[in-house]
Amino acid sequence: MQARVHNLLDHIIPPSDETPRKAATAAKEKDSDLWNHLDVVLLQWMYATVTQDILTSIIVINDTAEECWKRIAAMFNDNKHARVVRLENKLAKHQPGRFPSTKAYCNHLKLLSDQLTNVGSPVTNTRLVLKMIAGLTDAYAGFVTYVQQHDPLPTFAAAKSRLELEEIPARVGMSSCKLCLTPVDTKPKMSATTSNPCKDPSLYRSLAGALLCLTFTRPDVSYAVQQICLFMHNLMEDHMNALRRILHYIQGTNQYGLHLYHSSTSSLISYTDVDWGGCPDTRCSTSDYCVFLGDNLISWSSNRQPTLSRSSAEAEYRGVANVVSESCWLCNLLLELHFPINKATMVYCDNVSAIYLSGNPVQHQRTKHIELDI
C-alpha cells in the first residue's frame, strides 16, 4: 500500500507493459543513488510490517525490495492452504453471543469472508447469509423467518441492515409486538414534568441512541426520535411510552429505508415545515426540512429552534431561512464535486405569511431581528 501511495510500486513489482518498464529502467539508470535510497526505504517498510518469524525467514544481506517481495509472496503462497483451514475453522465457530452487538457480529463475519476471498477460497452470498442466521436466539425468530422465506435470499448487506434493525426491539423483548401505523402521537405534547420518573434510564438512553443512528437511513422517524431525545436529563414514563411507540412502528415498517435511484432531473427541491410553539415547557418551535436532488432525498433535519417565536409566520420564516442555508451549502458541495446546479432551488412552505415575507424585499426591513437570531 505504501509503495502504491508514494508511486514506488516499480521497486517491488516490475511493470508488465513495455512502455512503463522502459520508463522505470530509465529512471533507475538516470539517478541510481536515489533509486537505491528509495529501495532501502521500501525494505524498511516491509521489514516493519511483518512478524518476527517471517522477518527471520526473509532477511538476507545486500537485499533489494523486489527480491524481498518475491520471497514474502512465495511464503504466503506456500501457507495458503493452512490459512484457508484456519479461517474456515474460525468461520465455523463464529457465534453471535461472543460479540456485544449484531453489528460487530456481522462486521467480523464479513471480515472472515474477505480474508477467505484473499486466499482464493471465496464465500458465496448464500453461505454467508445462512451463516449469519445460524446461532441467533429466539429473539430474532422473525428475522430468521424473513430470510428463510425470501426467494432469492437477500444480499449480505440487506440482511445485515435488517438484522441491526431487529436488534433494537429485541433489547426490550418487543420482537413480536403489535404494529403501529405512525411513529408519534401528534395530539398530546410530551413534557419534562408529567407522569412518573422512568424506571430504567440507562435502557432508555441506549435505545434512543440506537434510534438516533437509525435516522441516517430512516427519515420518517426523524421527528419522533428528535422528540424523545429532548428529555435525556429528566426521563419520565411518558417518554418511554413514546419510545416504545416508535419501536412498534419500526416493527411494521422493516422494509422501509432510504433508496437512491438514477433521476432524469438534476435540480434541488426543498420542503420546510414548523411545529410552532410545540414544546409545552419552553414554547420553542421545531423546524423540519428535507431536500431532494431530483427524485432522491439527500438531506433532512428536525431540530428545535433556539429562539422563541411570537407568531407562526416568524417561526415559519426561520424554518425557510434554515432550509435555504442548507440548500446553498449543498449547491456549493455539488459544485466542488463537478456537478453544478444550473437551476434555481425551489423552496416549498405552507405558510402564506412566510412566503410573503420571503418574496417581498420591502418586508425585509421588518425581519432584521429574525436575521440576527439566525
Write the layout of secondary structure elements.
Elements: H1 2-5, H2 18-30, H3 32-48, H4 52-58, H5 65-78, H6 80-92, H7 102-118, H8 125-133, H9 141-149, H10 156-170, H11 201-214, H12 222-228, H13 237-252, E1 268-275, E2 286-293, E3 296-304, H14 312-336, E4 346-349, H15 352-359, H16 368-373
Parallel strand pairs: 1-4
Antiparallel strand pairs: 1-2, 2-3
Features:
four-stranded mixed β-sheet; 4 strands; 374 residues; 52% helix; alpha+beta; 8% strand
Describe this structure in words.
This protein is of the alpha+beta class. It contains 16 helices and four strands. It has helices at residues 2-5, 18-30, 32-48, 52-58, 65-78, 80-92, 102-118, 125-133, 141-149, 156-170, 201-214, 222-228, 237-252, 312-336, 352-359, 368-373, and strands at residues 268-275, 286-293, 296-304, 346-349. Strand 2 (286-293) and strand 3 (296-304) form a beta hairpin. The radius of gyration is 29 Å and the shape is extended. The relative contact order is 0.06.
